[in-house]
Amino acid sequence: MDAREWDERYAATELVWSAGPNQFVETELADLAPGRAVDLAAGEGRNALWLAERGWEVTAVDFSLVGLDKGRQAQARHPRGRDLRVDWVQADVLEYDAGPVGFDLALVAYLQLRSDQRRVALRRAFGLLVPGGTLLVVAHDSSNITEGTGGPTDPGVLFTAEEVLCDLDGERFEVIRAERVSRKVLAADDGTGQHRGEPASTAYDALVRVVRTD
Question: Of 39, 44, 68, 126, whose CB has the highest number of CB atoms within 10 Å?
């Protein structure tokens, strides 16, 4: 999907995703001391706002202006919205240039790109980190299309944790976690309505957390 298609999708409903952070973003990053974070493909800003609530200075990047506007609106409604440090940036993650100052955290959650573009995006995300910085990637796992529920139906934009590590081949990092994880999808609370009326089911995601060592 291109920026126009995502604009249309974000405009068609109040929230495409849940208002709160992704569960793996929350569990994997809750232990990190706040610093500078970049949320690539930030969408409606749910993860960016959660990070900002925890004291992070966040740059939220997405090519959908509609998605970013919804993030700004959510920040404006937040009780501490004026104190939350979020810079909403409209840019393609394949081209985004953050300048010379690095980040302590780069988050890539549910970015849907084909393998050649994904490799570019993930290597660029890793390159934004300072030494000791964390890259967290969460995505629909390749197995989800046959074993899980929801998510893209195009296998070309699905991938595994092992493929993420291959995309980063040649970089210097410590692997904290790289595996397939399961996520319970509740029929009445999945944020998209796709499973409404169906029993709770399981989705499978790829999760990779690495720390840059050079």
Answer: 39
